[in-house]
Amino acid sequence: MPSRPTLRGYDLLRNPHLNRGSAFTLEERDTYGLHGLIPARVFTMEEQMDRALLNVRRTATSLGRYINLARLMERNETLFYRLVIDHITELVPIIYTPTVGEACQHFGEIFGRPRGLHISARDRGRIKELLTAWPSHHVEVLVVTDGERILGLGDLGAQGMGIPLGKLALYTACAGIDPVRCLPVMLDVGTDNVELRESPFYHGLLQPRLRGAEYESLVKEFVDAVRDVYPQALLQWEDFATDNAFRLLETHRTRIRSFNDDIQGTAGVTLAGLYSACRANHTTLRDQTVLFYGAGAAATGIGELIVTAMMEEGLSRAQARQRCWFLDSKGLVTAARTDLQSHKLPFAHEHAPIATLEAAVRELKPTALIGVAAQARAFSEPVLSAMADVAERPIIFALSNPTSKAECTSEEAYRMTDGRAIFASGSPAPAVTLNGKTFTPSQANNVYIFPGLGLGVVATQAREVSDHMFLAAARALADTVSEKDLEKGSLFPPLESIRAVSVKIAAAVVRVAVDEGVATAEIPDDIERWLADRMYQPVYRDIPPDRRGSLDANDVAVP
Fold it and tell me: Do residues 103 and 89 share a domain?
């Protein structure tokens, strides 16, 4: 006789990984003691989805829709992912950019059921203990932030937890990483945002940010604990301030399989966009001159990957660097400046000072202008007009998030260039009709890169994440863009195809891992089928007997 399930009644209904709500059958209600705890009618998952989508759509604001979906995830994770996957174009802008920025700004006010792991500066000396206590023992991906540079919004402290939560939701929806194998982590080291510290709703440490040796020691302890507790896991660094982002990546990337999405993921998706733009222009990447507005982690990360890609097309490193120019808050990055941070130095060229973006465009004559400074409307009419003057088909990427920080709108980019621009944005941008032609720009969203890359890394158990994996991911992504996409102004494939795209990207990453000798798993001949078969599918799972609330995916029967 089968053993009696220990997860029953309210305990089962409160477990988001196993709860089916009104979809529990009559037999299951008998087995799990659910009669009387849920209404009598048995609904199908499709009927539950219709109800959930109705309630999302009837919510008036984007933040309200975010909260609605967050509450759904907290009570029925399977239904949440089925809904997101089936309506991905509509719902990704709600669960991630641009709405996640607003959600982080108000995270203390909308805080519901705690999710993920909150490690604070008070936890020094016991971080391994906290990780060990997490109920899933087979974590594959961790996303960690310290909340200092959330999108283009700055220091949001512990309220930055919305970013790891959103990123991991995309890992599951877009690349099939099982949600019980995902762990969002907030490193709460305080905040220098005085307004937040004075807020009655702020839920983090009420102290200025930890800095220096104490900060480094805390992060090292965290990395060491992850290596010990989850030796098979991939660690993604997210939304750290520029100096910390570069230092932590360089310090720990060979100690633990890890990457920084702001530096490397953004670089991958931007390079893919440039590859597509070159196809639309009938040119090559090595022919481009790129001007960056902004010189932080994201900007120079993109620059470094472009240099690598140009070298693959025959340029020397020096020649490739000479095709990438940067403008920061003090003007053009040049060799004569003595105030440059180390990550800017490789792109500090010999040139006379240039103070403004418009002047830089007219002097340097770039074919591509990339905005990553989170300075709203920086691509003004004079700047866009200058791009139209110096380039036949100017490539204009307004990548800053959220929408309020975007350098320009799609309408401005097309109108000021008489429809000649090749445009992409960091947040969703509306279609534009000009001179009888409709342009449908697509979003240069990291969601196109990091989930597939992560899938490839965890599948191969690669010992480290190499730069060439991002180059391969960018090429694979660009290869999925059809001529029809390019004709309508889209540089990326439709988001509806993202799971198939992620498999293509993961396969490219697997091949790099094998070629570089860092793959440790056995790789079958049919890589894409192997990857697709391991992807999580949001269907209601069997509830095993003698289950005591563990989140361990190995203890859950997955059809």
Answer: no
- Whether the ω angle into residue 538 lies within 30 degrees of 0, i.e. cis, is no
Q: Taking the complete model, does pTM exceed 0.90, yes or no?
A: yes
Flag whether 531 is in a domain.
no
- Angle at CA of residue 284, ends 279 and 288, nearest 5°: 110
Rounded to whole angstroms, how far apart are CA atoms 499 and 321? 34
Q: Which domain covers residue 325, as residue numbers?
A: 261-523
Task: Note whether 302 and 270 are within 8 A (CB).
Answer: yes
Q: What is the CATH number of the domain that holds 246?
A: 3.40.50.10380
CA distance 552 to 555: 6
List helix spans (H) across 258-417: 266-281, 297-312, 317-322, 357-364, 381-390, 410-415
What is the number of domains present in the chain?
3
Do 499 and 371 have their domain in common?
yes
344 and 358 together in one domain: yes
Q: Any bridge partners for residue 290, and if so which?
A: 324, 368
- Select which of 32, 81, 96, 540 is catalytic: 96
DSSP state of 265: I
Does one domain contain both 458 and 349? yes
φ/ψ (deg, to 5) at 235: -110, 125
Strand (E) or helix (H) holding 216? helix 212-229
Structure-derived torsion over alpha carbons of residues 477, 483, 489, 493, reported in degrees to the nearest 10: -30
pLDDT digits (tens, 9 = 90+) for 156-210: 999 999 999 999 999 999 999 999 999 999 999 999 999 999 999 999 999 999 9
- Condensed to tens digits (0 to 9), the pLDDT of residues 458-491 reads 999 999 999 999 999 999 999 999 999 999 999 9
* Identified catalytic residue from 32, 167, 448, 504: 167
Whether 96 is catalytic: yes
CA atoms within 13 A on the CB side of 472: 24
Domain check: are 487 and 544 in the same one? no
Same structural domain for residues 73 and 175?
no
Shared domain check, 228 and 306: no
